[in-house]
Amino acid sequence: MKVMIEVRPPVVALLKVLSETGDVKEVINRLIDHAQQGVYRPGAWEREWLCQAFGYDWQKKLESGDPYGRPNCESIFQRPAGAGNIAQVPQPLVKRGAA
Fold it and tell me: Could you tell me which of 72, 98, 68 has the C-alpha nearest to residue 84?
């Protein structure tokens, strides 16, 4: 999924200070990464950060399980309820062992 956003110049200036290179795209990608970690990792510091920003009710939309489909992670991670394994793992172009 591609998302296009418009960021006003004062916000760009504020976000630039969060990157050593002033790369706002890098800052936004990092914020997205931390937000997704806060959703699927119940004990992560990002979870409380999200609760401060969005309240606590969104947690009711989660169930036990790893959204990335990793084995033996059902008890430590959470995913959107009813979503199952939502990761889109790319398939190899060439089968291993094939001649």
Answer: 68
